[in-house]
Amino acid sequence: MAEKQDSKKQGIEQDPFILRLQTGDFIRFLDTVTPNATCPSCGNTSFEVISDGDHCMVLATTMHGPSGERILPCFAVYCDRCGFIRPHSVFPVQKAVAELDAAEAEDGVGD
Questions:
Q1: Residues 5, 70: contact at Cβ < 8 Å?
Q2: Which of 57, 62, 103 minimizes the C-alpha distance to 76?
Q3: Distance in angstroms (rounded) separating the CA atoms of residues 101 and 80
Q4: Cβ(86)–Cβ(76) below 8 Å
Q5: How far apart are CA 73 and CA 63, in angstroms?
Q6: Which class for 72: exposed (0-12), middle (13-18), buried (19 or more C-beta within 10 A)?
Q7: Is the distance from CB of 26 to CB of 75 less than 8 angstroms?
Q8: What is the pLDDT of residues 79-95, one digit of tens each?
Q9: Angle at alpha carbon of residue 21, lines to 82 and 81, rounded to 5°
């Protein structure tokens, strides 16, 4: 079982589509999709992106169910007051960023 889990983790870690999101793109996503977000723990409105500076780091959560284990990769922010971590599934974030990019290209933004 451990070998199967390791191979799943390796697959996610090696997939550049999942891992590669620039921090600025995640911030654009957050500003567009969650502009009025507050911390559910303390009510603070200031969050920090979990990143290495240029790219978001992935929070890989292992989900357990009757059919086995699955890894849910997330990008995350944390409240800069209480430390509450707010994950966002990688897949909707990447889809939204692609849609933002397409809309900006259509509008000629960045030219």
A1: no
A2: 57
A3: 28
A4: yes
A5: 10
A6: middle
A7: yes
A8: 999 999 999 999 999 99
A9: 10
> What pLDDT digit, counting tens, does each position of 7-40 carry?
344 444 445 444 679 999 999 999 999 999 999 9
Predicted TM-score (pTM) of the model is 0.76
Backbone angles phi, psi at 53, to 5 degrees: 110, -65
* Structure tokens that stand for 27 in this block: 């911030």
First and final CA of the chain: distance in angstroms? 51
Return the amino acid letter for 75: F
Percent of the chain past pLDDT 70, that is, above it, reads 80
CA distance 42 to 79: 9
What is the three-class DSSP state of 55? strand
Helix/strand/coil (H/E/C) assignment for every residue in 13-48: HHCHHHHCCEHHHHHHHHHHHCCCCCCCCCCCCCEE
